[in-house]
Amino acid sequence: MKWLEKTIACERRALERARKRFVTKPSEKRLHDVRTKGRRFRSLLEDVAGIAKSERLRRRVKRAAAATDAARDATIILRLLETSVDAAEAELAKPLLERLREQEQLATREASSALRRMRFTP
Amino acid sequence: MKPQRVDLRGVGNVDELVDRVLQTRLREAHALASGLARRDKQGLHDFRIACKRLRYALERFQTVDPSLEAIAERLAALQDALGEAHDRDVLLTILPPTMPETERRLQRERTELVDRADALWRELEQMMQALDSHHT
């Protein structure tokens, strides 16, 4: 099915471009982009698993997503805490905010290092 | 949560592929909608993932059937609300007990977000009835 081959190739290239951008210069936006492209591509491979055999590729995309989970979690929770902490409890939130900032930096470095070793193009 | 496998036996063209994928993903979302009614963390999470799979399929197949766009947009809004509720669940698990005001605020926001998701799902159920009959 031509449409399917074209769609798989297109989403695969989009993921590879997002991966390259993220490992070149990691940022919150680029992390979000690589995760979104990965989720879409994985969802496509799952939908068409009955006619397009791509189990190894699907597992690689899943591993890439797992490698970025910690960075995404730290970033999201940090932003949420920064915006939702009650003014009267701002001082009490400081140690947790500090810990989340450290986690975010470390997890982003680890995600970048893991994705540097992966390729999605054939 | 593993996705339901789409039965693609006998599929010979794109229209048939769209029908089979959408039927499966619609069934999956309906089956997990009880999580939205229960409002528990795991139930909401599983339902959100099922909605995400359905939304991605709808967005992908818009090139084949442009009428899918409206449902995909509503699903995106539903997924946003559930995603934000989930973020609050995660933060609540690590929030120190010394911050009760922040905790109350997060709980209240979570309730509002799930309410919004619930209202969006009711709208979507009607839209999806039409979609289901069109793609079966």
CATH fold naming of chain B: CHAD domain
Low-confidence spans of chain A: pLDDT under 50, at least 5 residues? none
E-strand count of chain A: 0
Percentage beta strand of chain B: under 5%
Distance between the termini of chain A: 19 Å
CATH superfamily of chain B: CHAD domain
List SSEs of chain B in N-to-C order.
Answer: HHHHH
Q: Count of helical segments of chain A? A: 4
The chain-level structural class of chain A is mainly alpha
CATH class of chain B: Mainly Alpha
Shape of chain A: elongated
CATH architecture of chain B: Alpha solenoid
Query: Which H/E pattern describes the elements of chain A?
Result: HHHH
Structural class of chain B: mainly alpha
Mean of pLDDT of chain A? 95
- What's the gyration radius of chain B in Å? 17 Å
Defining traits:
heterodimer; A: 122 residues; mainly alpha; 0% strand; elongated; B: 136 residues; CHAD domain; 5 helices
